[in-house]
Specification:
By secondary structure, this protein is mostly beta strands. The chain is built from 3 helices and 9 strands; from the N terminus they run βββαββαββαββ. The strands form 3 sheets. Strands 1-2-7-8-9 form a 5-stranded antiparallel β-sheet, with no helix packed on it. A two-stranded antiparallel sheet has the order 3-6.
Amino acid sequence: TLQYGNFTLSMLAEFVYGTRSLNADRFFYQAGNEGFSDGIPIPAGIKNKVAYAPSQHPWRYPGDKDANMPSIYETARNGFFHDLRNSYFYEDNSFLRIRNIRLDYRLPENWLDRYFINRAEIYLSIDNLHTFTSKYFTQVDPEAAYVGGNILSSLSGVGGGIGLPRRYLVGLLVNFK
């Protein structure tokens, strides 16, 4: 909280550092296998439906030094869950979120005496102003749960849901004598 004259500025922030989460969209659309895995059906046509940019090179064979992405092919008998172990599908979801910022202006007391008012403040409050994340975090919100429509959405980690809404509030606080 900072105070100068009749103005008061206060802020509430929170942070999380050093955590990683599964990027479910990247996993579902760029992992290389489809079919069944441990008896769970993987929807046909969901896997590897991404057109890669010229700078993206999926791994193709042992010793492939140009690869900067995992193989687009099944990598094990239980390939679906094997792909979950690949760090490419995980993102740093460290963040700093400004939860609330509030600016108050206290009206001078000599203005208020004739109206039998002891104290009056006008304020502006903003909730969820901004969330600072790693430049590599590509999801919506590092705390939001993934919203999915299939049985595999429980694997999805965080970030793919709907982010926190920003809220603006203007108010007047009055204390009468």
